[in-house]
Amino acid sequence: MSENLENKIMSQIKSGKLKLHSRYIFLAEKLGLSSALVLSALLAVLFCSLLLFYLKETDNLVYLSFGRLGILAFLDSFPYLLVAVFVVLLFAAGYLISQSDWSYKKPFKYVAFGLLAFVLLIGSTLALTGVVRKMEEQAFRGSGPGMFFRPFFEQGIEMRGRGIVGRIFEIDGDYLIVETPHGLQNVSLKNLRCEQQCEQFKKDDFIIAIGQRKKDVFMAEKIQKIEPGRMPMIHRGIRRQFEIK
Amino acid sequence: MNPSQLTDEQLVKIIRGKDRELYSQIIKRYQTKLSHYLRKFIYNADELEDVLQVAFIKAYRNLYGFDVNKKFSSWLYRIAHNEAINYLKKNSTGQISLAEVEYKLIDEKINLSEDLDKILLKKKVERYLNKIKLKYREPLILFYFEQKSYQEISDILRVPRSTVGTLIRRGKDQLRELLLNY
């Protein structure tokens, strides 16, 4: 068997039937894998910072301050798309690491934990810097690299079914007319579970309300006054809507 | 320079550079070792030779994929291991066959009771090695029969070094239990 096998293989090599794969194939494979890994890890960091920025700068988490009633509004404004992309990128980075030459040397749970720690640490640091805010400006201006992330930022100021945020433009009996990034909206106070009165509010106050949208009117069930600085993304959205335009 | 004095890694460099025919040295060096290893997974001699041939051909084709700073034998065993796994996925296994020297190794290292009937023991080891889960059988075979170090086994099986010890210990326990209880 031994001579036979050697002869079989060597005759194929000598005749040129059996050839070495080009070194460039291996080089390209290695470079491709490394680049894909770096890209997916960097994008995961970026989406982590976008997600943290979204949670910090939009109305989403504020709805939870209404207690049980605010949960629907919270779920309604939750950034599912951002979270989904972030999770997919994390899994992609984890998968690419598992395909690398070195990953098997350490148990995968350590590698996965390291990746998660890296992404969360750098992502949250990035969220604290002005980078994401600059991207948001670019997204709404429609210029620069930030414009590619517009769908993710837009979700932060889009119209909600269960909640509303804006600046009071006018108070009219049982109605508030509120400036939002989508223009003036009517907020009815008829369903207000009211320990609160309209008189508490005055023009230019920032308010956040939960309730239900019925056609063009938002039927508020609870309203809170908020500091303008708490909602910069909405605030900027209103400025764009009413001042810049 | 006499090719037999060169290390595997030096040989690979020369084969990749100009002298393809030196690959026969690699085949000579590893044919017996690898067929020994594959015999623990593949019972049929003809099929074993086919798998071995495929492993050598794949290794040759992918020589540029080997990092000469690493150990060539681990890389080659990894290819043979993958081929054995592919074979096992397609085929049901027969009873493996142990050489006399291997039987002595397992007797010494697994530390079975001395008064067991040696011939009976050999037959039992042959029969029960196949009954152990593949994930335990592989490191057990590499460690006891192929005399590979933990690091080499880690490189061949692509599992962390610390896991190799655990797998060997569990495999050994399973084999001992099977040998003593049946």
UniProtKB/TrEMBL annotation, chain A:
Highest taxon of the lineage = Bacteria
Keywords linked to the UniProt accession: Membrane, Transmembrane, Transmembrane helix
Q: Does the keyword Transmembrane helix apply?
A: yes
Q: Which residues cross the membrane?
A: 31-55, 78-98, 110-132
Please state what the protein is called.
Uncharacterized protein
From TrEMBL, chain B:
Q: Which UniProt keywords are listed? A: Sigma factor, Transcription, Transcription regulation
Organism superkingdom? Bacteria
Q: Which residues form the RNA polymerase sigma factor 70 region 4 type domain?
A: 124-175
Lineage of producing organism: Bacteria, Candidatus Kueneniibacteriota
Which species does the entry assign this protein to? Candidatus Kuenenbacteria bacterium RIFCSPHIGHO2_02_FULL_39_13
Q: Which Gene Ontology BP annotations are present?
A: DNA-templated transcription initiation
Q: Which GO terms describe its molecular function?
A: DNA binding; sigma factor activity
Report the family membership.
Answer: Belongs to the sigma-70 factor family. ECF subfamily.
Q: This chain belongs to which protein, by name?
A: RNA polymerase sigma factor
User: Has UniProt tagged this entry with the keyword Transcription?
Assistant: yes
List the Pfam families.
Answer: Sigma70_r2, Sigma70_r4_2
According to the entry, every stretch annotated as the RNA polymerase sigma-70 region domain falls at 27-92
Q: Which PANTHER family match?
A: RNA POLYMERASE ECF-TYPE SIGMA FACTO (PTHR43133), RNA POLYMERASE SIGMA FACTOR (PTHR43133:SF51)
